[in-house]
Design goal:
The complex is a heterodimer of chains A (266) and B (380). Chain A is of the alpha/beta class and 266 residues long. In chain A, 37% of the residues lie in helices and 23% in strands. Chain A has a domain of 65 residues. In chain A, helix 6 links the parallel strand 7 and strand 8. Chain B contains 12 helices and 4 strands. Chain B is elongated, with a radius of gyration of 37 Å. The N terminus of chain B is likely disordered. The chains are: A alpha/beta (266), B alpha/beta (380). Chains A and B meet through helix 3 and helix 4 of A and helix 1, helix 2 and helix 3 of B.
Chain lengths: 266, 380
Amino acid sequence: MIKEETGVLSQDDIPAIRIRGLRTQFGLNVIHKDLDLDVRQGEIIGVVGGSGTGKSVLLRTIIGLIKPVEGHIEILGIDRSRLTGEDEETLQQKLGVLFQDGALFGSLTVAQNIQVPLKEHFRIPQKLLDEIAAFKISLVGLPADAGPKYPSELSGGMRKRAGLARALALDPALLFLDEPTAGLDPVGAASFDRVIVELKKAMKLTVFLVTHDLDTLSTVCDRIAVLANKQVIAVGTMDDMLKINHPWVKEYFHGPRSRAAGISAA
Amino acid sequence: MATIAQEKPWLSVERKADVTCIKAGGPWHVMSLHWAYEEVEKAGSPNTGSVELDLQAVDKMDTAGALLFFDMISMCDRSGVNVSFSGISDEQRLLLKQVEENYEPCAIEPPRKNSLIKQVEEIGVATVTIVEGFGALLTFLGLVLMRLLRTIMQPRRLRLTALVFQMEHVGLKAIPIVGLISFLIGAVIVNQGAIQLQKFGADVYVIDMLAFSQLRELGILLTAIIVAGRSGSAFTAQIGSMKLREEVDAMEVIGLDPVETLVLPRLIALILILPILTFYADLMGLLGGGLMAWGTLDISPGTFLARLREAADFSTFAVGMIKAPFFAIVIAITGCFEGLNVSGSAESVGLHTTNSVVHSIFLVIVLNAFFAIFFTTVGL
């Protein structure tokens, strides 16, 4: 984006993620076609869409787990397809990802899980590593005694928090969350939502989250992107969403669940 | 943008009477943290007077850098040195505040046990596991036999489709591998046996050796081992993944007996199929041996058959065949038992599948040894 009055490209104005003409497909099954999306720096964007519209696929494509067939993805102004080797690794270090069930390494404790990316990329003294792990554990709202526990000893909600702590290990600029509140009870989900908002404020994160949770959408997200017909059919705030006249979007944001979440009036 | 500037973080310390001025600069983030740590170590901390920390020149700071500063500050605090800031931005203040709020040390690993105690504990756990496992296996065997009895009394309860499906997978699809292995083993016995027996000029006795070893022992043993590896493991994986997806629980709730629907078709299929496969393996073994004898020892097929009839009678063949249904029970029961014991994660499926193969091969070989002793004792 170019500042209109000066015409100078300022660093803060580079979109965190810029997707143009994205096409992904598995075999003959086209998931996305000519998909465009911009994510601004410092915002929390929520991606919604019906089952099978490729929300998770989009997330996995942006973080580089799936190669797009066509199109460009720029992350912080860098086209990832042109990167090789070390540069790609450097970019990858700016991304933190929370997978659906935390994806913690089962043979390591929570604290050791958090230290994995730190140990892999940098030479940091052990004392400092331990301090960082303890800090991140507290940051995501886990009790200190969760540190020496193995993932199998934790509840689903705690595993998600631990996964978030690992995603935050390198202080990433961009955080990706795949259905962060799925499988959590409403109280746990609400407190997880709060953690995300607080972290975003404190660490100046840009958050890309895929969710079905209307509460998360209304309380956490700055903007919402709707996936349908293989494209992003709408991007905007919750107020914008309520004005959109698309059958699925209407059903979604004006449905009984939406009313229960206090989004639209009956 | 693409390259990260490799600037180093720095600290400069200036002591003026009571006040120590510490200036920090450069990037204080996770990527340059080891340099920053060295700087902090080098600078040390004053234990008297007060400290003025100037963060003006710090151009990038993340929580890791803030943590390092916070370490410095708390070290000063502990020795009673007052710390004041200058040139600190709001952002940096926020980061430091966040670190302060979440500065709660925690353990990284669970406490380690004394290694001797740990080893004794492991031996104890292993012993109890083995004994309990064997007991549970016997209980399961009993349960399955009861169900089998009920099915024999009421043949309508038998799942015919499942049975035929299992027979196809366990039997028909094993034909190539069982045939090939038996053929090769038969050929190798003749080939290697002949080399040894030639020393005594008794190479024609290689046929006796082939007949005895193939019909009595190797035919059934190798077939059982192949089936344990192919089908026993498949039983565990199939039932185990059903267990994981709660399909087995759903069956019970609906009123389908898992033993009757899952275990019995596999058990009966294996009991019916293993003798047939063994018979086929015997044939292929003799064929392989016969061809090898013809090719390398010039024993014509006619001579081979005549010698074979003298060497082995029906009882030799029967001794091998009679073991087949017993081995079938061992393999099917172990495979299904391990499958039904799967719990929790996909990892557990793998673990139980390995267990299933190892245990069933072990049990087959032990049982075979008992059979050998038994048949020798009764004079067969």
